[in-house]
Specification:
58 residues; alpha+beta; two-stranded antiparallel ribbon; 1 helix; 16% helix; binds zinc ion
């Protein structure tokens, strides 16, 4: 079930992006699934958040 509001704006739902030389690569925003959800983070910062929340380091 696809919600139009959750279509990835970076790749427009295709899951693929192309650079200036037309090389295609998987969209890093939606991880290639073409959907973007509010919980998703465009930057790989989740590991840092986990450390902060769980306080693994004393
Ligand atoms: Zn995307």
């Amino acid at each position: 079930m696809v919600d139009r509001n959750n279509v990835c704006k970076a790749c427009e739902g295709t899951g693929m992006l192309a650079d200036d030389e037309e090389w295609q690569y998987r969209c890093t925003v939606c991880k290639g699934d073409g959907h973007f959800f509010p919980g998703d983070t465009p930057e790989p910062s989740s590991l840092i958040n986990v450390d902060e929340n769980n306080r693994l380091l004393d």
